[in-house]
Design a protein that fits this description.
The protein has helices spanning 16-23, 45-53, 65-68, 72-85, 106-143, 159-167, 173-180, 184-197, and strands at 2-8, 32-36, 59-62, 89-92. It is an alpha/beta fold. It has 2 domains: 2-129, Resolvase, N-terminal catalytic domain (Rossmann fold); 147-204. Strand 1 (2-8), helix 1 (16-23) and strand 2 form a beta-alpha-beta unit. It is elongated, with a radius of gyration of 28 Å. The termini are far apart.
Length: 204
């Protein structure tokens, strides 16, 4: 039996390129398994289902090694499970050297293992670099005064009057929240800020 495995990192990514490449290998659509999930680990339902189905002599097609996973050690372990424990073959379409069907002798196996280690390391290293660049970008933006998260809720101009009426029970909590267009938690927080600073500020 031949199978295909597709992985995209989120529901926003398009899997068409992987699906076309695997279809070109004559993999039946019913034998194609796809996860829309991060490649940080192998806790993926469709991948697990695929591995459970594998039998000796089966072949699994994947477009590129990073579609299999991005964690260096985990990729190696899953490669071992598929090829050694299950007795199946793996074919990485965009890297012909990673095709265990043509690497059965000692030298071929050595080359495939070496290429796998290098590519897995590169994939994991790139993931670490992306994360580092993101952290550096966020730190630089914060240093420039860029604010992250939801914008600060502004209070209405008559907030003090609304609070006074609320405290005197001339307004119910529900009415006060409606007039201020705030949640209960934000309303109480703004009251505390007012008591602490004696002024109402709206941080832009």
């Amino acid at each position: 039996m031949i199978y295909g495995y597709i992985r995209v990192s989120s529901t926003d990514q398009n899997e068409d390129r992987q699906r076309i490449a695997i279809a070109a290998k004559d993999v039946p659509p019913k034998n194609v398994y796809m996860d829309k999930q991060s490649g940080k680990d192998f806790d993926r339902p469709q991948y697990k289902k695929l591995v459970r189905k594998l039998k000796p002599g089966d072949t699994v097609y994947v477009l590129s090694i990073d579609r299999l996973g991005r964690n260096y050690k985990d990729v190696q372990e899953q490669w071992r499970i598929i090829t050694k424990e299950k007795g199946a073959d793996v074919c990485v379409i965009d890297m012909p050297l990673l095709d265990t069907r043509t690497a059965k002798d000692l030298m071929g196996t050595f080359i495939a293992d070496l290429v796998l280690q290098i590519l897995s390391f590169v994939a994991e290293n790139e993931r670490a670099n992306i994360k580092k660049r993101q952290e550096q970008g966020i730190a630089a933006a914060k240093a420039r005064g860029v604010r992250f998260g939801r914008p600060e809720k502004c209070v209405p101009e008559n907030f003090v009057e609304i609070v006074k009426k609320w405290e005197q029970h001339d307004l119910t909590t529900r009415d006060a929240l409606r007039l201020c267009d705030m949640s209960r938690a934000t309303f109480y927080r703004k009251i505390r800020e007012n008591e602490a600073t004696k002024t109402i500020r709206c941080k832009k």
